[in-house]
Each structure stands twice: as structure tokens, then as C-alpha cells.
Write a structure and sequence with these properties.
Radius of gyration: 14 Å
Helix content: 55-70%
Strand content: 5-15%
Number of strands: 2
Mean pLDDT: 79
Distance between the termini: 34 Å
Number of domains: 1
Structural class: mainly alpha
Largest sheet: 2 strands, antiparallel
Length: 95
């Protein structure tokens, strides 16, 4: 499970550790850079978190944050045996 820290009632997520498969980690970051490139050129509502982070942080750090978020989603799906369902806003913009 990705690392989590709690302090004063506020949840803080840890980064991507250097343990595990190096290739998988690289692919997650590479995919995250593609998501960032897509978010910069398109105005999609689900990219508001990403755009806000890009305003405050360097692009490489945002790529790792997006890769971490993706890894958490994948981990949750694998442990719970679910399937990924895009939110209603994503489905409406792609249709």
C-alpha cells in the first residue's frame, strides 16, 4: 500500500518509494507526463487539481504526484477486485 501519514487530523500522502519494480515506476511517471501534457492543452474539468498544482510546483514534481495518485487508484482496484469507472464529468466530456 502507498504510504500515508496522519498529523493533527490531516491526512498526508507519502511519495512513490524506490522499493519495488523500477520499470513500473518509470512507466507511471511517463504516463503522468502524458496526462500533464494533455491537461495543459485541453480544458477539462477533471484536470483542475492538476492545473492548480502546476501553477504552484515544477512539472516534474507534479508528474510524480500524478503517478502516485494513479498508483493509489490501481492499488485500490487490485486489492478490492473492482473495475475502474470514470466519473460522470469525464464520460460527459468524452461523449
Amino acid at each position: 500500500m502507498p504510504r500515508q501519514n496522519f498529523s493533527g487530523g490531516k491526512e498526508r500522502q507519502g511519495g512513490i518509494s524506490k522499493q519495488g519494480d523500477r520499470t513500473l515506476r518509470r512507466l507511471l511517471v511517463l504516463g503522468a507526463t502524458a496526462v500533464i501534457r494533455h491537461a495543459r492543452t485541453r480544458s477539462v474539468p477533471e484536470a483542475s487539481w492538476l492545473k492548480g498544482l502546476l501553477d504552484r510546483r515544477p512539472a516534474t514534481l507534479v508528474a510524480v504526484a500524478q503517478a502516485n495518485k494513479t498508483a493509489r487508484i490501481v492499488w485500490a482496484l487490485l486489492t478490492r477486485g473492482g473495475t475502474y469507472r470514470a466519473s460522470a464529468t469525464v464520460q460527459a466530456t468524452t461523449a
